[in-house]
DUF1345 domain-containing protein (Rouxiella aceris), 221 residues
Amino acid sequence: MNLLHPLKHYYQVRPRLLVALLLAIVCFFLLPASQPLVQKLLIAWNVMAWLYLFSLWWLMLRTPAPGIARIARAQDESAATVLALLCVTCLVSILAILFELGAVKHLSGGDKIQHIALTAATLVVSWSLLPTAFAMHYAHMFYLHGSKTEKALLFPDKLPLPGYWDFLYFSFTIAVAAQTADVATGNTAVRRIALLQAVLSFIFNLAILGLSINVGAGLLS
């Protein structure tokens, strides 16, 4: 009973993440026992990450600006924890990709293409999930930890109620260009989060470059 209560509460607050996690666990145990552990973990991660990514975008596209504050209040208790776990998991996925790429060198034909496709899908979803999660966190900080005199983010057109598109724009600009473009940070707390995102994005961009070189060399060999 003590275990069911927090699970029920978490499902009410973050149903998308919990459902994606449960489906990933089911997928992991349904995979053949003979399959390498790293490969099973990568497939399960892809199931969870892609489902969670699409569900977040579905939520963002359907939520008007006034509704963001309600979502932020509901998820306030676990916002920082979820962001930290996603960051750590995405970084771990890069390590798993390195192990997987090591195995690719000893494969050929269809097996080699399958391994490369799995690593590429993992890298794409991990890279895409990070700025999406950061966008949710920026929205959370703007609506819950800002004030009339000190906004977490300063938009050039002085939007009273920015929508998720505005936070996605800010977050993906950091992910792609490592800069904040025309949106300014309003306090030190936001600058810390933006710095963390910039560093993680740099690591992922290096990983994408390395994967591209590795795949190119593998296909030519």
In short: The mean pLDDT is 81.
